[in-house]
Specification:
4-stranded mixed sheet; 35% helix; 17 strands; 5-stranded parallel sheet; 14 helices; Rossmann fold; 463 residues
């Protein structure tokens, strides 16, 4: 046990090693905070947030509170020095910086005190007209067979209302699940303008790119400063494994309430917080669909996929674009007011308040990208069913064994295609099960506690 430290003067340490001040009321009133991970000091600024101070600036600010920095006591410490140590002991925070969905100020995060240094941009609702925004949205999502406008508007209304609640009320907030929004249309159709001029300012004014994290990266600290995460088709996955990885990563990113913030190097920290995130995936049709995860039934209520038409009246020149953007910016408060009151007709998911929808054009294109559909092609190409049989049936292991036996190249040698497709012992059964859910050509039943499969010819299915 360490020896007790006697309090020999009014300005020394107590028995626990805490600085004792005779003027603690003065120092405790100073709104200054210390972020020890980086050794940074923060003080209020004129914009409603907090600015970082260098050591000298911090001492100068303490002097403004009457704490002299040039009169050392018998121990060689000035009043400003001792105030600094008191602040380190009593005003340290576990994190200082921007945080998606948090206004500036002190917050509690799972028992740790954090300092949010800047509030997100917040557009307050105000009644008025929003003809330019309305034209962009209605024509961009125009579809004769599907009311995509209402589906998009319900998604955006739920996003904005939740963000509005975060900006106007003190936590803790009720966590609200929200599906990913995927929008796909030709280059220049207006989807990029929608994201930049409408979605980004309505949801805090900042965006971040989650690509590295979704592709298996550990560090995600850069995502925590923005409420809008945008993944575009420059990130279209070159291989199937990346698309598979995105299924779990996307669900974790959007559907887990508590998120672990992890930085690297000088930003290294381990902190669990509750950011406000909404994710948009945008791309062109065709190869751009590779940005999406592989089809997975668990994503059915976690992702909305919309097909974009060509938006009407888009500007053509730089001057027109600047004037058009200025109009949209001016209309956003009125559009926000409309969103606060908007409610789509029809069935909404009770967990998200949104309408679950995958546009058939996109869903069919994704089906063609599925490895299971490639397996169906191989079943036909390798003539698994045979010329005189209406179907093949058996277990997953029997199916794998027969497919491997048929897997030969033009010279009669093993091609290796099935080795790549069935890369583990459970893969054949998993792919057949997925095909049974996606196409009527494959039926799955239970036989003696194991899966039994029937595979029909392309032109024939069971009635």
């Amino acid at each position: 046990m360490p020896p007790k430290i006697k309090q020999t003067t009014p300005e020394r340490l107590d028995e626990k090693g805490m600085i004792w001040l005779h003027n603690e009321d003065v120092v405790s009133a100073i709104p200054m905070h210390y972020y020890g991970v980086k050794g940074h000091w923060y003080f209020p600024n004129g914009s409603g947030g907090y600015s970082r101070l260098k050591e000298g600036q911090m001492m100068t600010m303490l002097a403004e509170y009457g704490l002299r920095k040039n009169k050392p006591d018998d121990q060689g410490n000035t009043p400003a020095d001792r105030a600094q140590m008191w602040l380190i002991q009593n005003r340290s925070v576990a994190y200082a910086g921007m945080l998606a969905g948090y206004v500036s100020g002190l917050h509690e995060a799972n028992g740790a005190e954090i300092l949010v240094t800047d509030s997100p941009r917040f557009i307050e609702p105000k009644s008025g007209a929003f003809n330019t925004v309305q034209s962009l949205v209605t024509t961009l999502f125009k579809d004769a067979a599907h009311n995509q406008y209402a589906i998009f508007m319900q998604w955006l209304a739920e996003c904005y209302r939740a963000f509005h609640n975060r900006m106007t009320s003190h936590g803790p907030w009720t966590f609200q699940h929200c599906p990913i929004l995927g929008i796909f249309g030709d280059s220049g159709c207006g989807k990029s303008a929608l994201i930049k001029l409408v979605l980004e300012p309505l949801l805090g004014g900042k965006r971040a790119d989650p690509l590295k994290f979704l592709n298996g990266g550990k560090f995600n600290k850069d995502l925590f400063s923005a409420s809008l995460l945008v993944l575009d088709d420059k990130a279209a996955a070159a291989n199937l494994e990346e698309r598979r990885m995105r299924v779990g990563a996307l669900k974790s990113l959007l559907w887990d309430q508590d998120q672990r913030m992890e930085g690297k190097g000088t930003d290294a920290l381990d902190l669990t917080v509750q950011p406000f995130w909404r994710l948009v995936i945008a791309g062109n049709p065709g190869p751009g669909y590779n940005i999406l995860p592989t089809l997975d039934k668990s994503l059915k209520d976690k992702m909305i996929l919309l097909h974009c038409a060509q938006a009407a009246d888009l500007p053509k020149t730089n001057e027109e674009r600047a004037a058009w953007a200025k109009k949209i910016t001016a209309e956003l408060p009125a559009f926000a007011d409309f969103l606060m009151k908007f409610k789509a007709s029809g069935k909404v998911d009770p967990r998200t308040g949104c309408v679950n929808f995958w546009h058939p054009t996109i869903q069919n294109a994704l089906m063609e990208l599925q490895p299971e559909m490639r397996l169906l092609e191989m079943i036909d190409n390798l003539n698994l069913i045979g010329n005189d049989s209406p179907l093949w049936e058996g277990s997953a292991s029997e199916f794998e064994q027969e497919m491997r036996s048929l897997d030969k190249d033009a010279d009669g040698k093993k091609s290796g295609m099935m080795d790549r497709m069935f890369y583990n012992g459970q893969r054949a059964g998993a792919m057949l099960t997925e095909l049974a859910e996606q196409t009527s050509r494959v039926k799955k039943t239970d036989r003696h506690g194991k899966g039994h499969y029937r595979i029909f010819r392309q032109e024939q299915t069971e009635e």
